[in-house]
Design goal:
Blueprint: E1 8-10, H1 15-21, E2 28-30, H2 36-41, E3 49-52, E4 62-65, E5 68-72, H3 77-82, H4 84-89, H5 91-98, H6 103-108, H7 111-115, H8 128-133, H9 162-168, E6 172-177, E7 180-185, E8 205-212, E9 218-225, E10 236-244, E11 253-261, E12 268-269, H10 284-297, H11 308-329
This protein binds flavin-adenine dinucleotide and iron/sulfur cluster.
Length: about 325
């Protein structure tokens, strides 16, 4: 049995008190604990104190405000998956939240924990004993990367299910820090170094994610490949959001956003999709073009289980299927 290290726990009642408590040297936040506690058991970090967000009621709201659906960082994955307005406005978000892990983990895990999820790698999400047997790596006790042996930075995978979807919808993230709130595009929050892939300023707590309400008809989808149907992190994932000239799959595509997860430490925004603009979504070349661009631009690494070339093929398959399913649904 893996034991937790010793640490103190503080349970502030307000966001301001949580920000103040986070100023203590080495303090870390805990929300549902479904990511950080396993990592502490694996000795990937040894904070002296955890600041729990479980009593901060202001983080648990979902509301519509200024043309956005605002989801508080403390809202659980189950609440997101089951919320009527989330399901009606952003079915791909509800779907992605509902396929994370398992019901018990979704009841504990939160949006804030999901967007601040640590990166994952087959060489680091192991016991301390296992890691030290291979000399550690840049993200743990060593100074090499086993995935890219001559690489200078860690390329552990960003494995959150919600980040690609929220990114494809143009969401922003609001962090509350000692100097007040800071809002930034969600996709700008992630960097390429898997040892520090989140651009969170010292003392900041994620307060909410804001998803802009669509001004035109849209179709959105999230597809995740896993070996088992439950409990597994994605091995590849793709989120697609298509804007249409009118509310029909036979309408012209006016915009498209495709974001792929589980490559390196940040989500990948697929480019060169202009070719599909002006075509009907139901035109088979749209699904084919998107899948081709995804395959050309997304090259998985051997950072998570399953062979990278196979995972690359699967992203193409899942991207194509996602659009075909949008069309079939009408
Ligand atoms: C068996 C298993 C399977 C899993 N499968 C999946 C999966 O399929 N897909 C997936 O996406 N995830 C998966 N997870 C990971 C995790 O359960 C979820 O990502 C969950 O949303 C994390 O939320 P949490 O509240 O439990 O985070 P915590 O563990 O509490 O925190 C995670 C990280 O976020 C930070 N944090 C938490 N809240 C905030 C905040 N408000 N502001 C700033 N930082 C914050 C913490 O300091 C910590 O670094 C899995 C976990 C397990 C154990
Ligand atoms: S990508 Fe390399 S440095 Fe990063 S966790 Fe994996 S082996 Fe370690």
């Amino acid at each position: 049995m893996l034991r937790l290290p010793r640490f103190g726990v503080q349970t502030p009642d307000t966001l301001e008190d949580a920000v103040a408590a986070l100023a203590q040297p080495g303090a870390r936040l805990v929300a549902g604990g479904t990511d950080i506690l396993p990592n502490l058991k694996h000795r990937l970090d040894q904070p002296p104190v955890l600041v729990s967000l479980s009593r901060v009621a202001s983080l648990r709201e979902i509301r519509e405000e200024d043309g956005n659906l605002v989801i508080g960082a403390g809202v659980t994955l189950t609440e997101i998956a089951e919320h009527d307005r989330v399901r009606a406005l952003f079915p791909s978000v509800a779907y992605a939240a509902g396929v994370i892990a398992s019901p018990l983990i979704r009841n504990m895990g939160t949006l804030g924990g999901n967007v601040n999820l640590d990166t994952r790698c087959r060489y680091v999400n192991q016991t301390h004993f296992w890691r030290t047997a291979i000399g550690g790596c840049l993200k743990s006790e060593g100074d090499v990367c086993h995935v890219v042996p001559k690489g200078r930075i860690c390329v552990a995978a960003m494995s959150s299910d919600l980040v690609p979807v929220l990114g494809s919808l143009g969401s922003t993230l609001v962090n509350q820090g000692p100097d007040g709130p800071r809002e930034l595009p969600l996709l700008d929050y992630y960097g390429a170094d898997g040892t520090a892939h989140i651009k969170r300023e010292p003392g900041e707590v994620t307060r909410e994610v804001r998803i802009p309400l669509p001004s035109t008809p849209t179709r959105a989808r999230y597809a995740k490949w896993t070996v088992r149907k439950s409990i597994d992190f994605p091995l590849v994932s793709v989120a697609i959001n298509v804007q249409l000239a009118s509310d029909s799959v036979d309408a012209e595509v006016t915009g498209v956003s495709v974001v792929v997860g589980v490559l390196g430490s940040k989500p990948r925004v697929v480019t060169r999709l202009d070719e599909v603009i002006g075509r009907k979504l139901s035109d088979a070349t749209v699904a084919h073009t998107v899948a081709t661009r995804v395959h050309a631009q997304c090259k998985p690494l051997e950072n998570v289980p399953y062979e990278a070339p196979y995972r690359r093929q699967m992203i193409r398959v899942f991207a194509q299927r996602a659009i075909e399913e949008m069309v079939a649904e009408g």
